[in-house]
Amino acid sequence: MTIRLIIAFAIGFFVSSLAGCFLVPWLRRIKAGQSIREDGPAWHMNKAGTPTMGGLMFIAAVLAVCMIVGFEPMMRGDYAHVFCLLFASIFGAIGFLDDYEKLKKKQNLGLSAKAKFLLQLAAALAFIFLMREFGYVTTNLYIPFWNSIVPIPEWLYFVFAAFVIVGTVNAVNLTDGVDGLAAGTSIPVCVFFACVTYIWGETYLSLGVFASGLAGGLLGFLVYNFNPAKVFMGDTGSLFLGGAVAAMAFAYDMPLILITLGLMYIIETLSDIIQVCYFKLSGGKRFFRMAPFHHHLELGGWTGHKWSERGLFALYFCVSVVCAVVSFAGIFGRYSF
Questions:
Q1: Which residues make Cβ contacts (< 8 Å) with residue 109, sequence separation at least 6?
Q2: pTM value surpassing 0.85
Q3: Prior bond to 228 cis, omega within 30?
Q4: CA 111 to each of CA 14, 66, 108, 142: distance values in angstroms, whole numbers, following the listed order
Q5: 300 lies in a domain?
Q6: Closest by alpha carbon to 143, among 58, 219, 253?
Q7: Where are the extended beta strands (E) located within the chain?
Q8: pLDDT tens digit sequence for 232-269
Q9: What value does the mean pLDDT take over residues 176-201?
Q10: DSSP label at 45?
Q11: How far from chain centre, in Å, is Cα 23?
């Protein structure tokens, strides 16, 4: 099993990094350049025109891993990784439509917020229903650290699941604000799920293959996305990535682990919510220098130290590693091995 997880990671890295050799020049040729927020940090304006939709690199990598390393589990009737891939791909398709609209309009505005929300909500409910029908998800809510189960009504579980999935997807999307940040924050998350497979056994092999392949794909993507970025993942990549993280949390039947595991995603989301609410309640004042939180740090919020993009990458990656270790301790005793 360990060898398969390592092979999945290696294939993911190889396919993603190789795909970038062809995808990045092609995106430049078709002028698929990213428009930059005018209200963002001034120094981000020199990124205008950098190719977007680079998330296709790690999407291709995960597809290859699922078809190669995940083929044997499929032959045994285990389709958990296929469902996760399908679900994440639906979100990736929503992101692709959003990116396409932005490119067509030549501005940083794609699909309307209402359209994105409704599409995401429909995808979330369909995924949970499918996983429930195939027995991959139960309505018994696992509580990490306490190692206990709380049964809840099915209708309430569906409402809870839709809220968590849509929230996670958009939180990951918010994290994609500086070079390498979303990928760097998410690699420890994916490695966490692969490690869970290692301790929980063969039953979760297909999910471990998916998680390990995605981690490798993200590392391959960072070859091109690390500062200074040659390509951005775009909403195509960030929504796929958010969908994948949410899908794994539910497929492993422990969605509440996202509270600790996805702490950096939560901070990004809360900073945006706090900024908007404070702005409205205070008559135009700002709680943060800029939201999401990484922009606040970029502008020297609180300490006066202006974080570089590489510094932010290191900070978020390290905190995400710590969160993964803490989360691992929280679920370690769930199953004997």
A1: 101, 102
A2: yes
A3: yes
A4: 33, 30, 10, 35
A5: yes
A6: 253
A7: 140-143, 148-151
A8: 999 999 999 999 999 999 999 999 999 999 999 999 99
A9: 95
A10: G
A11: 21
Task: Quote the distance between the C-alpha of residue 183 and its chain's center.
Answer: 8
Decide: 55 and 16 in contact? Cβ < 8 Å: no
Q: Is the pLDDT of residue 337 over 50?
A: no
Q: Whose structure tokens read 């049964």? A: 151
Strands (E), 233-327: none
Q: How far apart are CA 253 and CA 237, in angstroms?
A: 24
Residue type present at position 236? T
Q: What gap in Å lies between CA 41 and CA 307, rounded to an integer?
A: 12
Nearest to 91 by CA among 231, 245, 230: 245
Mean pLDDT of 273-298: 92
Both tokens of 263, joined, read 């702490």
Whole-number percent of the chain with pLDDT over 70: 93
pLDDT 10s digits, 134-163: 888 888 999 999 989 999 999 999 999 999
Asked if residues 207 and 5 have their Cβ atoms less than 8 Å apart, the reply is: no
What range defines the domain where residue 249 resides? 2-331
Number of domains making up the chain: 1
Residue 208 lies in a domain: yes
